[in-house]
Write a structure and sequence with these properties.
With 384 residues, this protein is α+β, with helices and mostly antiparallel strands. Helices cover 54% and strands 15% of the residues. The chain has a four-stranded antiparallel sheet. It is elongated, with a radius of gyration of 28 Å. 30% of the residues are buried.
């Protein structure tokens, strides 16, 4: 029996976890390195950036105004965008166009039926001239769209038209700003309430903690959907659309702060007895300095993860309220308002493209959930 003098193979963690570069890295850099490993989260981050870009520049990106209509093209099906066409010599050139429609009358149902006419071509251009429109609430006026028909009046319905002949693509693009901003503004208000009340509950404890926790439990015991419906129905019908928008955001925020407050309370309860907090208290640091200088930075990453997972819930809540007719109402354009058009049997049978706003909701919610999962994994200290 021989005994080898070679050192045993190392069975501990890989060397990448103990390199000087990693040991000296900050918490945010460690989170970024961990977040990059989550491929779905990285892809979803680019999708969210694209959605944010669309919402920010919706007036310029949408080919038409959301209220522009044409009775000739009610329930017109989507047109295919062709990027290349043949010139007089027969060679392919970059010349975008869409085909026109053939319209026939179905005698049994007495309705118009659209079919694509490949013999008719309507050219599509980039940076085309349009009617003047306000940008960012009237901050300035533009007369150029990113793309659109070269000749005014030509049909361009890449995602079809609704019952009034309005372009669904333009309305979805405009709805991106409202639906996404409600999620962001609503979560921002919930974050303020959650941090303040959850922080006070976890740091003070005692009677203050009991009162705040009983309030949270009472709110959580209420059925969410009937509560939303009751609060939304209580709003006056004569309110302007902008006031209704802020009222819906406030309603969602007043209900959605409870889970975040409990997370923050738990973090405060676990940290207030730590050695570094006790040392700061014995050193004479004020409560404000202990909370914001010593305790808050240690769990801010968890707050970011919770916020990213709360935004999809806000978006779905607004969509549900608007779909039921108790949330935002026309002329405001949101994804939930657009889905109201898909509440009849004709939409299911003859105009399935009216469900396109639902696809936008699914993409946005899935992207936010994947990014939230990636942030939650990156914020977990046991995965570093």
């Amino acid at each position: 029996m021989t005994i080898s003098s070679e050192p045993a193979a190392e069975t501990g963690p890989p060397m990448a976890h103990s390199t000087p570069k990693r040991d000296s890295a900050s918490q945010w850099r460690l989170m970024w390195w961990q977040f990059r490993r989550h491929r779905l989260a990285m892809v979803s981050s680019f999708v969210l950036l694209l959605i944010a870009f669309v919402g920010l520049f919706c007036e310029f990106l949408a080919p038409f105004s959301p209220d522009a209509f044409s009775p000739r093209y009610t329930y017109a099906p989507p047109q295919r965008l062709h990027l290349f066409d043949r010139n007089e010599e027969g060679s392919l050139v970059f010349r975008p166009y869409v085909n026109g429609y053939k319209v026939t009358i179905e005698q049994a149902a007495l309705r118009r039926v659209f079919t694509i006419d490949e013999n008719v071509k309507y050219p599509v251009g980039l940076f085309v001239k349009s009617d003047p429109y306000p940008m960012w609430g009237g901050l300035f006026t533009l007369e150029t769209k990113l793309f659109g028909p070269l000749k005014k009046g030509d049909p361009l319905y890449l995602l079809g038209a609704d019952r009034l002949g309005r372009d669904m693509l333009s309305r979805i693009v405009y709805g991106t700003r409202i639906s996404m901003s409600i999620g962001l503004v609503g979560v921002a208000l919930s974050l303020m309430l959650g941090i303040i009340l959850g922080g006070i509950s976890g740091y003070k404890g005692g009677m203050v903690d009991n009162v705040i926790q009983r309030v949270i439990e009472f709110i959580l015991s209420l059925p969410t959907t009937p509560l939303w419906l009751g609060l939304a129905a209580a709003m006056p019908n004569n309110w302007p659309p902008l006031r209704i928008y802020f009222a819906i955001t406030l309603i969602l925020s007043l209900i959605g702060w409870t889970s975040l407050a409990r997370v923050i309370r738990g973090r405060f309860l676990s940290l207030r007895t730590e050695d570094f907090v006790t040392a700061a208290r014995l050193d004479g640091a004020s409560e404000k300095r202990i909370i914001f200088r010593h305790m808050a930075p240690s769990f801010v990453s968890h707050i970011i993860a919770e916020v990213s997972l709360a935004i999809p819930a806000m978006i779905l809540a607004e969509t549900a309220l608007s779909f039921l007719g108790l949330g935002l109402q026309p002329p405001i354009v949101s994804w939930g308002v657009l889905l109201q058009e898909a509440q009849n049997i004709r939409s299911i049978v003859t105009a399935p493209w009216l469900f396109a706003p639902g696809v936008a909701v699914v993409i946005a919610v899935l992207s936010l959930n994947f990014v939230g999962d990636g942030l939650r994994d990156a914020a977990d200290p046991y995965r570093q």
